[in-house]
Automatic annotation (TrEMBL):
<comment type="similarity">
    <text>Belongs to the NAD(P)H dehydrogenase (quinone) family.</text>
</comment>
<protein>
    <submittedName>
        <fullName>NAD(P)H dehydrogenase (Quinone)</fullName>
    </submittedName>
</protein>
<dbReference type="InterPro" id="IPR003680">
    <property type="entry name" value="Flavodoxin_fold"/>
</dbReference>
<dbReference type="GO" id="GO:0005829">
    <property type="term" value="C:cytosol"/>
</dbReference>
<dbReference type="GO" id="GO:0003955">
    <property type="term" value="F:NAD(P)H dehydrogenase (quinone) activity"/>
</dbReference>
<dbReference type="InterPro" id="IPR051545">
    <property type="entry name" value="NAD(P)H_dehydrogenase_qn"/>
</dbReference>
<feature type="domain" description="Flavodoxin-like fold">
    <location>
        <begin position="1"/>
        <end position="215"/>
    </location>
</feature>
<keyword id="KW-0560">Oxidoreductase</keyword>
<dbReference type="Pfam" id="PF02525">
    <property type="entry name" value="Flavodoxin_2"/>
</dbReference>
<dbReference type="InterPro" id="IPR029039">
    <property type="entry name" value="Flavoprotein-like_sf"/>
</dbReference>
C-alpha cells in the first residue's frame, strides 16, 4: 500500500524526527511504499494568498475560496499545491505527525491543509440540495483512504484525561480528526499520542517506538473512529443537525460518534470500534 507521511517539526534530531524515521522504515519493512512531506525541510509556504493562483490578475480583489476554485478548475494552482494533491491521490493512507503546540498542529501544517485542500478538492465537492449537502463527512475526494494522527505533547497524560486541566485529548483533536480528515472522506483511525515527551529517556523511547510500531503494523486492521456520515440518515438536510432520535440527550463532539448501542436502522451498519477510542 502507499502511505504519505506529512511531518511538521523543525529539528530532525528531535523525538519527532526519530519517530518519523522509524515510521518510514517500519512501513517500508512491511512492504509499503512511503512518501514524506517534511514541511520544515521543504520550507513550505504556510500562508494562503493570491500567489497560489498563478493567473490571478494583479490588483484584483482576492477572495480565497473563489481563487482556490478557479485555480483548481483551470490548472493554475502553484506547483507545490498540485504536487501535494498528487501525493494524496497516490496515497492509500495518510499520517499527520506533529507536536501539539498551543492545543493544535503547528502553523506550518495548518498552512499545508489550507492550501492543499483546495475548493473542488478538499471542499466544495458534490451536490448541495434538500437531499444532500455536498460530498463530505464520510464522502468526498479522499473517501476510501485511511488517516491517523501521530502526536507528541510535553504535558502529562492525566492533563489530557477526561477531567484533566488541558481538556480531554479526544476533544482537542476532534477538529483535526473529524474536520481536517473525516470531512474530505478519510476513514480516521484512533490517534497515537506520546505524552510528557520532554522527559523521555532511552527506555521510554523504546516503549513509545514499540507502541507506534504496533499501530503501524495494524494500519489496515484497526477499526476507524465511528464518526456519523452526514448523508446516511442521521442528520437533517440542509440543516446538517442530528435528528432528535439520534443520540438523544447528548450534545457536543460525542454526539457525532456512534455509540456501540444500536440507535436506529439508518446507522446500524456503522461498525463499532475494535478498541476503545481514547
Amino acid at each position: 500500500m502507499n502511505v504519505l507521511v506529512v511531518y511538521a517539526h523543525p529539528e530532525p534530531r528531535s523525538l519527532n524526527g526519530s519517530l518519523k524515521d522509524f515510521t518510514v522504515k517500519r512501513l517500508q519493512d512491511n512492504g509499503h511504499a512511503v512518501q514524506v512531506s517534511d514541511l520544515y525541510a521543504m520550507d513550505w509556504k504556510a500562508s494562503l494568498d493570491a500567489a497560489d493562483c498563478t493567473d490571478w490578475q494583479p490588483g484584483a480583489r482576492f477572495n480565497p475560496s473563489l481563487a482556490s476554485k478557479h485555480a483548481y478548475a483551470n490548472g493554475s494552482q502553484s506547483e507545490d499545491i498540485a504536487r501535494e494533491q498528487d501525493k494524496l491521490r497516490w496515497a492509500d493512507a495518510l499520517i499527520l505527525q506533529f507536536p501539539l503546540w498551543w492545543f493544535s498542529m503547528p502553523a506550518i501544517m495548518k498552512g499545508w491543509v489550507e492550501r492543499v485542500y483546495a475548493y473542488g478538492f478538499g471542499y466544495g465537492v458534490g451536490e448541495h440540495s434538500d437531499a444532500r449537502w455536498g460530498d463530505r463527512y464520510g464522502e468526498g475526494m479522499l473517501a476510501g483512504k485511511r488517516a491517523m494522527l501521530v502526536v507528541t505533547t510535553g504535558g502529562w497524560e492525566p492533563h489530557y484525561g477526561p477531567r484533566g486541566i488541558n481538556g480531554p485529548i479526544d476533544d482537542l483533536l476532534f477538529p483535526i480528526q473529524h474536520g481536517t480528515l473525516y470531512y474530505p472522506g478519510f476513514d480516521v483511525l484512533p490517534p497515537f499520542v506520546a505524552y510528557r515527551t520532554d522527559r523521555i529517556d532511552d527506555a521510554q523511547f523504546l516503549e513509545i517506538r514499540d507502541r507506534l510500531g504496533q499501530r503501524l503494523d495494524d494500519l489496515w486492521k484497526t477499526a476507524p473512529i465511528p464518526f456519523r456520515p452526514q448523508n446516511a440518515g442521521a442528520y437533517s438536510i440542509p440543516d446538517c443537525t442530528l435528528l432528535p432520535d439520534i443520540a438523544p440527550g447528548i450534545s457536543g463532539f460525542a454526539a457525532h460518534i456512534a455509540s456501540e448501542e444500536p440507535e436506529r436502522a439508518a446507522t446500524a451498519d456503522i461498525a463499532a470500534p475494535a478498541m476503545q477510542y481514547a
